[in-house]
Amino acid sequence: MGWGSRCCCPGRLDLLCVLALLGGWLLPVCRTRVYTNHWAVKIAGGFPEANRIASKYGFINLGQIGALKDYYHFYHSRTIKRSVLSSRGTHSFISMEPKVEWIQQQVVKKRTKRDYDFSHAQSTYFNDPKWPSMWYMHCSDNTHPCQSDMNIEGAWKRGYTGKNIVVTILDDGIERTHPDLMQNYDALASCDVNGNDLDPMPRYDASNENKHGTRCAGEVAAAANNSHCTVGIAFNARIGGVRMLDGDVTDMVEAKSVSFNPQHVHIYSASWGPDDDGKTVDGPAPLTRQAFENGVRMGRRGLGSVFVWASGNGGRSKDHCSCDGYTNSIYTISISSTAESGKKPWYLEECSSTLATTYSSGESYDKKIITTDLRQRCTDNHTGTSASAPMAAGIIALALEANPFLTWRDVQHVIVRTSRAGHLNANDWKTNAAGFKVSHLYGFGLMDAEAMVMEAEKWTTVPQQHVCVESTDRQIKTVRPNSAVRSVYKASGCSDNPNHHVGYLEHVVVRITITHPRRGDLAIYLTSPSGTRSQLLANRLFDHSMEGFKNWEFMTIHCWGERAAGDWILEVYDTPSQLRNFKTPGKLKEWSLVLYGTSVQPYSPTNEFPKVERVRYSRVEDPTDDYGTEDYAGPCDPECSEVGCDGPGPDHCNDCLHYYYKLKNNTRICVSSCPSGHYHADKKRCRKCAPNCESCFGSHGDQCLSCKYGYFLNEETNSCVTHCPDGSYQDTKKNLCRKCSENCKTCTESDNCTECREGLSLQGSRCAVACEDGRYFNGQDCQPCHRFCATCAGAGAGGCINCTEGYFMEDGRCVQSCSISHYFDHSSENGYKSCKKCDTSCLTCNGPGFKNCTSCPSGYLLDLGMCQMGAICKDEAEECCGWENVDSGVRMLSFISSLQTLGRL
């Protein structure tokens, strides 16, 4: 490229541009790029591979760029520090390295301190035309103060964009030819259950009835920076679709859909369910229930498929999502909606099974969701909880990229711990006894993408799930109009059975059989032993059914983290909404508890323990006891000592069993261990650490044990610092300052020097006295290298930098022939040759990338140099959505080729 491509001045003005830069004139005419001698490089293979490539082309690897995995900072000392021309020379051939996925020479950017009106700044730029209007992704609208957002850009800045995560949309198909979906479309995550083939393209009609799935898909994984339409939350995730709503929906159709290719698909997103008409009670039938259970037990190779479900749009019909067995399942993540303002949308349903919330539409004047639309178009009119579930799926994809080993329950725990009430407007926010703030409208609050990926990075898998089925209470109780029935059950949490013992709760299911002349007049509440009250059912104006409920399962997540054992209180209210036959009263025939959780505490207490809110109701609304000023005779919280208590909560203890923690309002609460940022002091007190400490053994800055994010622990001084001193490097995974090897002045890893102490020189990534080729310095004198080494930095075959004739460098060692999963690299520099690792999809190969495979792992088939998952069709007309890992059968690629021949792809 000539100068003309690097300067705004065309033709004969090229020279003037250079003179302008040198002389300082004509600056208003030209805006010239200034290139530095620093590069950002993305390299697969980790630090050793990055160091090898840097050394090969004369660069110095200055380490990982912040928290961006596989992105490295390269420096070249022999290029011009500042130049109007991009650098050229042999070092520029680095871009041809198979492991180099991306490289960019850094350009000086003009940045101005904006002490005023900094809200105009937009931190992320995409060329997609709708990006500036995507209010729920970023805060760039300066017409009003930015509300609490979902911190999606924060997750991107940490390097997470959904790469290698597979999401499929269970809906009416997706338009895989859409310019915003083509790049990330995944045929292995797609199927047409309605049409019995593998092509999920929607059926077109004049009204564009089948636009729903395409709209949901764009929210998750619309490609970024392709100058078209929008940007997906996980814009590097792979996206597929299962076409299953454009036809008769049966139990078999649903079961096929939610169990489609579970070893390949990570997340299933569904924005549908039974009618939201305020009178339907319906849920998964046996096949689909089994498919859900199999998915969480065996999907994702045993980690569990993640099912995301929209909570429902029946708000105007006074519907209640507890009557929807899909959102009411412990296996699904039920997602609610909020408007941009944080107000409750008119369509929103309330229930105790909702886990969290994302943005969607509100009133007619509120902004709506922007996404892909049918016929390769865009829309800014996507609405309802249908828009919220795919957003949640996209955010979960970011978390799974940060930690692919999260189980299906880990994902729910991470959501619970990181979602926040923020500016969401609800009058029923309460804090349960485990310290989690929760609402029937919004679950645990607005999802936070950055907080989720940070939590995922450091996450430890929660203990095994235990299921405790308590005994059934079959004492029949009459439910009379304008009154309530109250039933108390003392649960043990199956403490006598180690395999079923539930000490700490996750999901609580209440199985109820009740007869009633008008089901819509019923309201049901459940109060936990810790005093947390969940509304399992609200009155439904349009539900005239006389069927009642037969073994219907209501579910609440409001007791998450609380203790399971103790008195559970079920209340059933009958509030007649119109005249009916009062001669036939309702009857509570039986009810039982199914407690899901862990036998031990899954993690330490949350960082803060807000005071437990106790909403007082009138006697008509809530006949439960008011503790008032009378002497309390009920059970104490487990954290209370034997001295006793004056109420049921951890803030009612007269003395603590373990530790005291003081809230900001000076309320004292008893905890089993001190929260993050505190230490165990004398007299059972939790005292604050220094501001930068995550944990400590005292209140001073030199008594830290671990550090908050952005700080690193200097183990020599027990202090938290932003930059590690010379002679040490930053271990970003553990937030520690680690010592460099004794010869390094600076380093990026213990034995990866970037600068040497006086009297030593850098040889590869090690510091040593300079010796002639074939010898290395052992600390006293120059010694011969191993016989395999042409040059080396230390003793033995593992110290080789380059290999002698007849040997090849492979994974840091010299070998006589390439091992399996490696290929001989015919290119060489200075006569030294090497063996490179095959692409991860290949068993053996003859070159770089995924198109040079010569054999494949078990369960995959070789086709045109690529390894594809095997697909077997017992009957091509009917069973092409059944997937198995097999070594023979009809190949997926061959099937797609046949579709191309027919003109369908």
From TrEMBL:
PROSITE patterns to which the protein is assigned, alphabetical: P_HOMO_B, SUBTILASE, SUBTILASE_ASP, SUBTILASE_HIS, SUBTILASE_SER
Pfam families per record: GF_recep_IV (PF14843), P_proprotein (PF01483), Peptidase_S8 (PF00082), S8_pro-domain (PF16470)
GO biological process, one term: peptide hormone processing
Residues of the active site: D171 (charge relay system), H212 (charge relay system), S386 (charge relay system)
Position of the signal peptide: none
GO molecular-function terms, A-Z: serine-type endopeptidase activity
Record keywords, A-Z: Cleavage on pair of basic residues, Glycoprotein, Hydrolase, Protease, Repeat, Serine protease, Signal, Zymogen
Domain P/Homo B: 461-601
Function: Serine endoprotease that processes various proproteins by cleavage at paired basic amino acids, recognizing the RXXX[KR]R consensus motif. Likely functions in the constitutive and regulated secretory pathways. Plays an essential role in pregnancy establishment by proteolytic activation of a number of important factors such as BMP2, CALD1 and alpha-integrins. May be responsible for the maturation of gastrointestinal peptides. May be involved in the cellular proliferation of adrenal cortex via the activation of growth factors.
Similarity section: Belongs to the peptidase S8 family.
Protein name per UniProt: Proprotein convertase subtilisin/kexin type 5 isoform X10
Species, as recorded: Balaenoptera musculus
Taxonomic lineage: Eukaryota, Metazoa, Chordata, Craniata, Vertebrata
